[in-house]
Amino acid sequence: MKTRSKVTQIGLDSHRKFSTVTGRDGQGKVVWRQRLEHRDRHELREHLRTWPAGTPVVLEGTFGWGWLSDEMLKVGLDPHLASRRKVAAWRTARGIAKSNRTDADLLSELWNQQPRWWEVWLASQEVRDRREWMRYRMSLVAMQTRLKNQIHAIMHRHGMVHDYSDLFGRDGRTFLNMLVVANDGTLRPSAKAALKGYLQLLDHVRRQIARVTCEMRRQISKSPEGERLRTIPGISWILGYTILAEIGCIERFKSARHLASYSLLAPLADDSGDASDEAPKGRHVGFMGRRTLKWAFIEAAHGAVRKGGRFRELFDRRTDGGKKDRNRGYIAVGHTLANVVHVMWKKELDYMENPPQRPTRRSKKRVVRKSRPGTGQPDRPMVAGVA
Q1: Quick check: is 372 in a domain?
Q2: Is 202 inside a domain boundary?
Q3: Which label site among 17, 88, 168, 182 has the fewest CB atoms less than 10 Å from its CB?
Q4: Which domain holds residue 104?
Q5: Are 302 and 234 contacting, i.e. CB atoms less than 8 angstroms apart?
Q6: Rounded distance, CA 33 to CA 37, Å?
Q7: What letter does residue 284 receive in the DSSP assignment?
Q8: CA dihedral angle for residue 172, residue 174, residue 180, residue 185, rounded to 10 degrees
């Protein structure tokens, strides 16, 4: 117990069934190393209570960090999240081989690193719950797309030609139901059984999507930030919920530029240093950020361009009226939307199509000095234009 009381910082390397832990004292020396089993949650929590309360615990932002950080907070510990990429690069730069013990030792050293270049934002339980709903709906939509593709494949394999623009609309669905019950030999019994099963699964997935969508709309309607997001052209219920869940806390972004970079909407320069008279071309957006946030802003950009206004003007200016580089035009509009979201969220403002002009600096007023009568000495300064 005395040895544990000397611990001032802890590094935790998490895995699916267990975690490797290293504790260090104030001088940076290793005090103890442990192995935590994840099977018994009550026993794990009781073991965490034996660690000194308020001790910072550094763990990597890998799979499963959420529930571990929640357990630490319950027993009074101070969890911090480290970037997996940065820790791996730091280990490689030091020429250290990767192992569970090595990773725990490295994580326990990070607390003394100033500034905290390794730390990333640890999302709260509320934000993680929103992201859980969002990912659940995304997975359901992916299942729905796969089922539709399987039904189209059945139609193609058996030469079924139709004129429906939407095979899963009202008329198209009636046509599919007739194929299931028809006995004219159009489809083989095996194909009819597969088609019937896919249609039943599709109906079930659609009901699940509807329930999740209603829950997301209920949550965003109770959020002031979500209601403000929905006033922006192109941002609907689902896109607003996605942006709200992925950003989580706007205060963690110093500026709108940081949010755009996190959303993978900021073009990166790849200059080689060679002098060239040609204009730079081939610049691409980044790859380290939230891909879901990038998708949401690009989808919102499509809707904003369709609605016209300032975003349509920006799109036309970047694409020469939509004639070239349309994808880059949508990226530019998405970048602007990210800037608008940052300003609105941080300053708690509603969207305005024509915002007021920013105040300009006052020009320095010309000072006119007059001489006193008969003395030749300058009188008190007078501002031009003011009596």
Answers
A1: no
A2: yes
A3: 17
A4: 2-120
A5: yes
A6: 14
A7: E
A8: -80
Cα dihedral across residues 257, 260, 264, 268: positive or negative: negative
Determine the Cα–Cα distance for residues 62 and 312; give it in Å rounded to an integer.
40
Indicate the pairing of strand 9-14 with strand 18-24.
antiparallel
* CA distance linking residue 310 with residue 356, whole number of Å: 14
Cβ neighbors of 138 (< 8 A, separation 6 or more) are: 292
Do 85 and 137 have their domain in common? no
DSSP three-state, residue 99:
coil
- Residues 74 and 17 placed together within one structural domain of the fold: yes
Instruction: State whether 129 and 28 are in the same domain.
Output: no
* Chain segment 281-299, per-residue pLDDT in tens: 556 777 777 899 999 999 9
The yes-or-no verdict on residue 383 having pLDDT over 60 is no
pTM of the model: 0.81
Tokens (6 digits) for 314: 């920006």
Measured CA to CA in angstroms, residue 106 lies from 13, 16, 62, 70, 335 at distances of: 9, 20, 15, 22, 37
Percent over 70 (pLDDT), the chain: 87
CB contact burial 175-195 (16+ within 10 A = b; e otherwise): ebeebeeeeeeebeeebbebb
Q: Give the tens place of pLDDT for each residue, 166-192.
A: 999 999 999 999 999 888 777 889 999
Which of 103, 120, 137 terminates a domain? The answer is 120
Banded pLDDT at 367 (limits 50, 70, 90) = very low
Question: 139 and 178 share a domain?
Answer: yes
Query: Residue type for 195, please?
Result: L
In a domain, 358, yes or no: no
Q: List, for residues 312-340, the tens digit of each pLDDT value.
A: 999 999 998 888 889 989 999 999 999 99
Rounded Cα distance between 313 and 315, Å, is 5
pLDDT per position as a tens digit, 64-76: 899 999 999 999 9
Residue with tokens 């949401």: 296
Burial of 89-128, coded b for 16+ CB within 10 Å and e otherwise, reads: ebeeeeeeeeeeebbbbbbbbbbeeeeeebbbebbeeebb
**In this structure, is residue 369 part of a structural domain?**
no
CA angle 119, 139, 67 (to 5 degrees): 40
Cα 73 to the chain's mean position, in Å? Answer: 24
The whole-number pLDDT of residue 385 equals 38
Taking the alpha carbons at both ends of the chain, their separation in whole angstroms is 82
